[in-house]
Amino acid sequence: MRACESAFAWKTAVTLRPSIIVLPSHLHEREPERFSMLAREAGSRLVVLESEQLPLDQLARMFSSALYTPAPVRAHASSTD
């Protein structure tokens, strides 16, 4: 586990490639698309916390769900020549 300043989040995430990126909701709300893109580029799952005072069992369920729920399948653009 590693914490970092938001200014270094992109470089840290793509360098370390964590399984999960955890963000407080107030930070995620500023740029949700950018954080989703960061998670995709780092190969990570994004977990957004509504409260930083969640019980440990609830955090464990959130992390397990993020790790073991299949990622949505994205459609690939096909070229028609």
Automatic annotation (TrEMBL):
It comes from Chondromyces apiculatus DSM 436. The lineage of its organism: Bacteria, Pseudomonadati, Myxococcota, Polyangia, Polyangiales. This is Uncharacterized protein. It comes from the Bacteria.
